[in-house]
Amino acid sequence: MILGFRFHPIRFPVGAAFTALTAGIRAYSTELLSSPFDLILGGLFLVIGVVLILSGCMSIRSAKIRIIPKWREDLVEHALKNARKGSLVRILQTWLPNNETFCYMVHELLTRGGINLRFQILLMNPGDPDDNTNDILSARIKLRHELYREKAQQDINMTIKTFTKCMEEVNEAWAKRLDNGRVNFEIRLYDFLPFGPIYQIGDEVMFVGFYINYKTSAEAPMVVIKDNSSRIWKEFEEDLNRGWNDAKPLD
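Below the sequence we write its predicted structure tokens.
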């Protein structure tokens, strides 16, 4: 929440008037015999006046753009659980670092949570370091000394396998109770230089991370964007659009 200051031309003076009435009632009550009614009326005017003054010069609103020191998977999960029916979920990652946990959560949402979502998943092309292609995977993990290329390649392939299997299980569950309904999902592989992970949940929220060169993006800062009309939203949305159009569909 953000506390802001603004002047409302009606609320502030009306609130000041109510507080002035309170002072008048108190002065009147001291000159004559005060009654419980005078005390109640004065207190009521005071409360109304203070509320109007505060609302006339201050505002409290939800932050449309926030920067969080470290990636929070719980915010992504909360957004997925509260997504509108049929929302398109778009994800750009090298691979899903919490692959099994994320896929299980998505499986539960789609089979038990009554949520119908569509998925577009962009993963880094694992490729082959010997096929003379643009080997961005090796570049991505060059300074991450706990990783080696073969392990990163395995992680990408495991993400593809796990998520595909998850969607197949969802399809089996849906076929039994949704008139042979099938989940709409697609995975594509990219070989362009990414800025960082992006998770877009419909038009409601977008989470953007950073590919720090020496560690996982899960330990890097996170930007939460809730204003889909803002310039920053449109820039990252266009980044996803161009990346998706350029990426290679799975065979």
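The longest helix spans residues 149-177.
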